[in-house]
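Service request form, structural biology core

Requester: graduate student, group of Dr. S.
Request type: structure prediction, single chain
Budget code: on file
Notes: please return the result as structure tokens.

Sequence provided:
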Amino acid sequence: MKVIIFILFIIMCIFNFNNVYAITDGTVYLSSDKQIIEINEEIEVFVNIENFYSDAYDFELYFDNDKLEFISENNNGNVNVIDNRIICLWYDENGGSNDKTGKVESFKFRAKSSGIATFSINGNFYTKRAQEVRTDFKELQIEVGKDETMLQKQAREEVGSSNDKSNSKLQNLRLSIEGMVPDFNKDIYNYYLTVNDNINNIEVLTIGENNNSKITVTGNENLRDGLNIIKIQVTSEDNANNSEYIINVTKTNNIEDANTNLETLAIKDVLLYPSFDNSVTNYNVEVSNDTYNITLLAIPEDEEASVDIVKSDVLQEGNNEIKITVTAKNNYTKKDYIINVYKRNYDEEIEYQEEQKKNQESLNNILEKTSTTIQSNDYNKQEYNEKQNETRNNIFYIIGIILFFTIILLINKKLKNKKRKSK
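Core staff response, request fulfilled:
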């Protein structure tokens, strides 16, 4: 009986040992109080842990110091800042009674230049039972200011103020029927809507950028089957300018036959801005000065719809418009997709290439530092695991010796009992 109890005790020790030295899983990720900030605006970044409680950790937080300036931390841990790296060390002085989960650290930054800023984190986290946490680290990206292309800057500078008496643009446009595409934009003048054949009138709500501009809406009543055109005429306060917004409304009892959506819209080796969405009809792209023509792919959702592309054979410096018209299966419902291709001139091309080179060098520096840290952490984890395995093997060896001598003693005792009985 004593031997059985002893063996059970040894087995329990083995299980307890494995539990103490097991590695648990968890997630460490970064979050922020804002996703988009302007230059000189402050942002707070949080370090979060999920699926475990930690009573000790040491980590390194990397940030883009070309776009952000470190301000302060929340003083929970011991923090040092070296260039674009924040080193943080913390442990629970109360022995695990104040272990943490959720948001464990926060850091404040101030924006100093526009672009996409990336944060990344690496380090070691432990539970109160001295378990190392095998962590899944997740990075964070924020947008500082507006990283505008030359084409976007040009469009922004051409927009007039709302107090301009010559302003003939709409500030808002809404319909009593949902489904108008694309979403309203004061610089987009063509919209599309498909309605059932029981719709006879559509209420149109319009607001001008200049409250004193004159707005006239026609074509929104007594809709007939087929294609209907709603026109919104905006005349500026000084009568010098006019703008016309058009809503192409298809009234039909067969919505599927009025499908004018594209399934695919792409240009070879060029990214559309914004990314393609069949409810978005206007796009911008920017190409190099040595680009003279482009390869365009436009595929409709409905195989029986037709696609017509109008574009110039040779791109000129500046703006070039490509018009893709999709005609539905019913042969009267149409939708135009517009791509504005901006070709940089010689001076703009030189400026663009220099900017790209600087961005690449900055990214390479960040990746190099991050890679070095990851390799160091991997080495430390490997060394830690090797020590764990060595300790485990030593304990198993000791347990084996104890069991061996226990068995010898039992055999010896049994032999003595046999000799005693034989005598």
